[in-house]
Amino acid sequence: MKVSDRMTRDAITVQADDPIRVAVDLVDQKRLRRFPVMKDGDLVGIVTGRDLRDATASSVVLTEKKYHDFLLDTVKIESIMSANPRTVSPQSDLKDAARLILEIKVGGLPVLQDGRLVGIITETDLISTLLEQLPDD
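and the corresponding structure tokens:
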């Protein structure tokens, strides 16, 4: 089985120069936990729900809403993202992608074809695949 068989196509992305509020709002609206970060059409990073929580978890920020709003509206995603994330191709073996996710301890990998983002493969995609393969009781 290939990554292309199980990946989420048309991954929801954010721009490197977007304020972190954009990603926070997407987490709330779409209930997703990671977003590829783009700049000039190229993948430059990945930002996760954990990155967002860490960036906004200051005790000052938590006690003062105006500081929280200021942070959300002024800090750019590129300042909290993980740059140059590991990637896989649609033709990669799904087992290899799963091993890589386990090895580097991430929740998902952007999928690139010819340098272009074409999707994302996540833990959820892998667990769904496993459940489909296991016999029903």
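(Above: one complete record from the training split.) DSSP finds seven helices and seven strands in the chain.
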